[in-house]
Amino acid sequence: xxxxxxxxxxxxxxxxxxxxxxxxxxxxxxxxxxxxxxxxxxxxxxxxxxxxxxxxxxxxxxxxxxxxxxxxxxxxxxxxxxxxxxxxxxxxxxxxxxxxxxxxxxxxxxxxxxxxxxxxxxxxxxxxxxxxxxxxxxxxxxxxxxxxxxxxxxxxxxxxxxxxxxxxxxxxxxxxxxxxxxxxxxxxxxxxxxxxxxxxx
Length: 201
What we know:
Keywords: ATP-binding, Kinase, Nucleotide biosynthesis, Nucleotide-binding, Transferase. It comes from Methylotenera mobilis. Belongs to the thymidylate kinase family. Phosphorylation of dTMP to form dTDP in both de novo and salvage pathways of dTTP synthesis. This is Thymidylate kinase. By secondary structure, the protein is α/β, with parallel strands linked by helices. The chain has a single domain, classed as 3-Layer(aba) Sandwich (Rossmann fold). The protein is 54% helix and 13% strand. The chain has a 5-stranded parallel sheet with strand order 2-3-1-4-5, sandwiched between helices. It is globular, with a radius of gyration of 16 Å.
């Protein structure tokens, strides 16, 4: 189980962040060191870029470049060192989010993202990606009851539909890596699905 890179993905309001602590507990119970992190963020510079990305208006390609700038630091400072010492890295979002948000929802050319992906990540890819999926209307209902929304969370239903479709397309293209979690189930059932996915590693 050591040295695994697990990512959690899903549109805002899908509920992925709710299960991070339980995944940490599952892995820790197996005697595994767990490094929990997030994107954008994960480093001091990454967190500063996160504030810009979540709250400042900018061109979608500028967003993409800043995402990968933060990701480069994240990989160099957090992800690769943790994997090198045999830890399990659990990241709340990674590059699939860029394909969903900046490409799928905002129209950035996928070939530009692919170029940045190969440059910044080299051969690094998650060992498993848990995609938390809910209908768009459920996502928006959850967001309306949550904290003050950031610029992405304030977007329209059509924006979220494009994100969801992009995520599901990514899952279909990478079936060996993705586990799609129906996050519209009761919390206990979602947790069970997550535990089964983690056990399959």
